[in-house]
Design goal:
heterodimer; A: alpha+beta; Aldehyde Oxidoreductase, domain 4; 3 domains; five-stranded mixed sheet; 24% strand; B: Ubiquitin-like (UB roll); 13% strand; globular; binds FE2/S2 (inorganic) cluster
Chain lengths: 738, 159
């Protein structure tokens, strides 16, 4: 992907008046979920345009946007939507990265929102272009507009069998007024020929030949390579260092220290080694002698955090939600359950380690960054360099995974600090160990669930206490008053009916950086809620599917507790739909071979509905997940094949959380370092995954993340069905199965 | 002292520290960035290349040990992405982020050179050294079977 040369604002505001031969239509794609929390961004005015459709006389149709591709397939799905309204072969649409414009709010990719948020505006933009091109053609032929229609990248006049390509019409169309987006006629979904049909990813070939360029592949002329020795203890800093031996390593050019900074992005600072190649830089770093000032968190450990959780749980938490009187209902109930679940920190472990390449000159800067938030990166490079943001050109490269990690700007801040000192293009490369030990982790959390059911299977009470190392407490202005807002999600508006529903939260203190990890709060809460519902089903002697269906009850609309006006409500009928579909497709209730069991879970996240049945066997204390059957409802699937791929991916990521993902802390530092002690699922552990997509006509919603939260509970519920052992800690601990 | 080897069919001479891993010679000295860095410890397979036809982890292969050997990287598999394994990868839409896929393909090609019609167990054996954080394993398996079915005779390394 290339970065479009700087677009002047006047170019797209007044295409006609400038006499441009190019048809250019600017429109606005809504901000992504995470961008809202960045203080710097909130101060900026919302610009009406952050995406453009461009049709040139050479017939090239280009979609210019500020979204990043990290494997989630938006570079396929978004042009498909545009092509549908424009009536042309979607694969002919070129996608250019919008230049990061500091005056425009939001260029970010996160929160599974890219396709969801782009659906309507992209259709409107495509339809507006189409209508303008049809008008231009009718005027040229001097015929009635309704004798003309858009087809195959041009306009056809039926009676005379005449055809103009869009390129031929672009100069005339550019002189016409842009139709009102709200009234422009959109295609009827019955006429869709692209949307809803399987398409192959556009970049599959480049990614199969080594030609795809990721951030780590940036090779501007005269590139220098850097690694940084960061304090292994979070919050620590360099006390002193001796670079004599490091400087003696062949290829090492320079060694210097940089400070830790907190510019919204938090960096560790450290000692930088500059060299002619990555290897020399790493060797130089090994030869450094550094004394660290370990700072205030040097005594933190996973054990101390666990103790803090227990202490917090001994006291009531802050009341987040309180319907009815859960305590009284629990006290009065003849049959009640109480369970504690615990989840550790987890690292993202993107396959491409963090890296960032920056060249700062006196008059401007250029950067190559695998980032989900290019504008934030541009901001921090400007701040560090003292340049104006508009003098900083950011190339958003392909990303070897994002999963929320690449929404941070820490790696850009460091690279800017280094580049400023070096004055040449420099890549700051993170080794796997750096990446593992200086991540922003999924929060560690402790949940206590209490519930009671009556003999008919009605849920008398549900009480959920959580204490965790909140994300909001790190990132948001009001995070210390409302740390719970990033930690419950759907768990604060569960779809299971109960008159007595209480949610409490206590913030736990930790020096470990936290942030968004694939599916964010839903990864932990999905596990907890769907495991505990299963516990209640068993306590009630009910079938887990029938039990859930009964608690869902008659269809109803449940507002999002944390975003009742901004977010769509949960529609329990759609949840019921995926629950039933997954159960049916998996053969729920039909006898399985001996030693094999099914477990089920269903969850609502990112405005999408998922259910999964896990088919599991256990041998010699090893859980073997053989098959996962999903049903997903993410509104209208744009590219069903792409939806399937995303759900398959989330399944493996979720399996990783079940099997392996645990970052533990000792003496203030991360104990894991590489894939030997932070293991990943491998192909031999990969189950057969089936994805059944509900053919909904609702607007599309997120799908990069919603497949994840159901995996751990579905698997654990299957393990319980098989062994009577309830797994309440992630990842799975051999002791819990013994 | 210069070290000479054959890289994707051409003789290549390089004068670097003898303990520098092949991975960094490829990526930083020759600017051949198709071979990826993932772990540096032979744990992930992202850096897989063929050395005399064997799938090898270039991140732990000192350049001195490849003197006189025949090396194939992802760039040397085919001129235009038409190697049967690459075609199968595209047909099954395997890549997501794509970062691991050079290594996956190199491991798959080496497997198919030895076993023209691998079983699922063969695939597990040959491919479990390659991590895919995007979880494309099911598609990798399908693509290997597809490549085997498409062209059992032609799946040898280009080297
Ligand atoms: S980089 Fe060589 S195996 Fe991971
Ligand atoms: S495709 Fe992303 S790591 Fe494999």
């Amino acid at each position: 992907m290339t970065t479009t040369p700087v677009l002047q604002r006047r170019d797209f505001l007044k295409t006609a008046a400038t006499g441009s031969a190019v048809l250019l239509i600017g429109f606005h794609l809504p901000t992504s979920a995470f961008a809202d929390s960045s203080e710097d961004q909130e101060k900026k005015p919302v610009n009406p345009f952050n995406a453009w459709v461009r049709i040139a006389p050479d017939n090239q149709v280009t979609l210019i946007l500020g979204k990043s591709e990290m494997g989630q397939g938006i570079m396929t799905a978004l042009p498909m939507i545009l092509a549908e309204e424009l009536c042309l072969d979607w694969s002919k649409i070129k996608i250019d990265q919008a230049p990061t414009n500091p005056k425009i709010y939001d260029l970010g990719t996160g929160g599974s929102g890219s396709v969801a948020g782009s659906w309507t505006p992209l259709r409107q933009a495509g339809a507006a272009a189409r209508e303008m091109l049809i008008t231009a053609a009718a005027q040229r032929w001097n015929v009635l507009r309704d004798t003309c229609k858009a087809q195959d990248g041009g306009v056809l006049h039926g009676a005379r069998k005449q055809f103009f390509t869009y390129g031929e019409l672009a100069p005339d169309a550019a002189k016409l007024p842009i139709p009102d987006f709200h009234t422009v006629p959109l295609k009827s979904s019955a006429d869709f020929t692209i949307v809803g049909h399987d398409q192959q990813s556009v970049v599959a070939r480049k990614k199969s030949t080594g030609a795809a360029k990721f951030g780590i592949d940036a090779r501007p002329a005269n590139l220098q390579y850097a690694v940084i020795a960061r304090c292994p203890v979070f919050g620590g800093k360099v006390a002193k260092f001796d670079a004599t031996k490091a400087k003696a390593v062949p290829g090492v050019r320079d060694v210097f220290a940089i400070d830790a900074v907190a510019m919204g992005a938090f960096t560790a600072g450290g000692v930088v080694v500059i060299a002619d190649n990555s290897w020399a830089a790493m060797q130089g770093r090994k030869a450094l002698a550094i004394t660290w000032d370990e700072g205030p968190h040097a005594a933190e450990s996973s054990a101390s955090l666990h103790q803090q959780f227990i202490d917090n749980a001994a006291k009531p938490g802050k009341v987040v939600r309180n319907d009815g009187d859960a305590d009284a209902a629990l006290a009065a109930a003849p049959k009640k359950l109480e369970s504690v679940y615990e989840i550790p920190f987890a690292a993202h472990a993107c396959m491409e380690p963090m890296n960032c390449t920056v060249h700062i000159r006196p008059d401007g800067a250029e950067a190559w960054i695998p980032t989900q938030a290019p504008q934030w990166a541009q901001d921090v490079i400007a701040q560090v360099s003292g340049l104006k943001p508009e003098s900083v050109i950011v190339h958003t490269t392909l990303m070897g995974g994002g999963f929320g990690r690449r929404y941070q700007a820490d790696f850009a801040v460091e690279a800017a600090q280094v580049a400023k000192a070096v004055g040449k293009p420099v890549m700051v490369l993170w080794t796997r160990e750096d990446d593992m030990q200086h991540d922003f982790y999924r929060p560690a959390a402790y949940h206590r669930l209490q519930g009671a059911v009556d003999p008919q299977g009605a849920l008398l009470a549900w009480k959920h206490f959580q204490t965790s190392t909140s994300i909001a407490a790190v990132w948001e202005k009001n995070g210390l008053e409302k740390p719970e807002q990033s930690e419950f999600g759907t768990a604060a508006f569960i779809p299971y009916r109960t008159p007595n529903f209480r949610v409490e939260y206590t913030l736990a203190q930790s020096g470990v950086p936290r942030a968004w990890w694939r599916s964010v709060e839903h990864s932990g809460c999905g596990f907890v809620v769907e495991s505990f519902v299963d516990e209640l089903a068993h306590a009630a002697g009910a079938d887990p599917v029938a039990f859930r269906l009964k608690l869902l009850g008659d269809p109803r609309i449940i507002p999002d507790f944390f975003g009742p006006t901004e977010n769509k409500p949960l529609n329990s009928a759609r949840l019921e739909g995926v629950l039933k579909l997954a159960a049916e497709k998996a053969g729920w209730g039909t006898p399985l071979p001996k030693g094999v069991a099914h477990g089920i879970a269903t969850y609502y996240s990112f405005e999408s509905y998922t259910a999964a049945v896990a088919e599991v066997s256990v041998k010699d204390g090893q859980v073997n997940v053989q098959r996962i059957v999903y049903a997903v409802d993410c509104g209208r699937p744009i590219n069903p094949e792409g939806v399937t791929a995303q759900v398959e991916s989330a399944a493996i990521y979720g399996l990783s959380a079940f099997m392996n993902d645990a970052i533990t802390i000792n003496k203030g530092r991360v104990e894991q370092s590489n894939f030997n002690d932070y293991e990943m699922p491998r192909i031999n552990q990969s189950p057969k995954i089936e994805v059944h997509i509900v053919r909904s006509t609702e607007d599309p919603t997120g799908i990069g993340e919603p497949g994840l939260p159901v995996i751990a509970p579905a698997v654990c519920n299957a393990v319980f069905a098989l062994t009577n052992k309830r797994l309440r800690r992630l990842p799975i601990q051999p002791a819990d199965l013994a | 002292m210069a070290i000479t080897f054959v890289l994707n069919g051409n003789s290549q001479s390089i004068d670097v520290s003898p303990d520098m891993p092949l991975l960094w010679v490829l990526r930083d000295i020759l600017n051949m960035t198709g071979t990826k860095f993932g772990c540096g410890m032979a744990l992930c397979g992202a850096c897989t290349v063929h050395i005399n036809g064997e799938a090898s982890r270039s991140c732990i292969t000192p350049i001195s040990t490849v003197a006189g050997k025949n090396i194939t990287t992802i760039e040397g598999l085919s001129l235009d992405g038409t190697h049967p394994v690459q075609q199968a990868w595209v047909a099954e839409d395997v890549p997501q982020c794509g970062y691991c896929q050079s290594g996956q393909i190199m491991s798959a090609v080496a497997l198919l050179a030895k076993k023209t019609n691998p079983t699922d167990a063969d695939i597990d054996d040959a491919m479990s050294g390659n991590i895919c954080r995007c979880g494309t394993y099911q598609r990798i398996r399908k693509a290997i079977h597809r490549a085997a079915a498409a062209s059992p005779a032609k799946t040898n390394s280009a080297a």
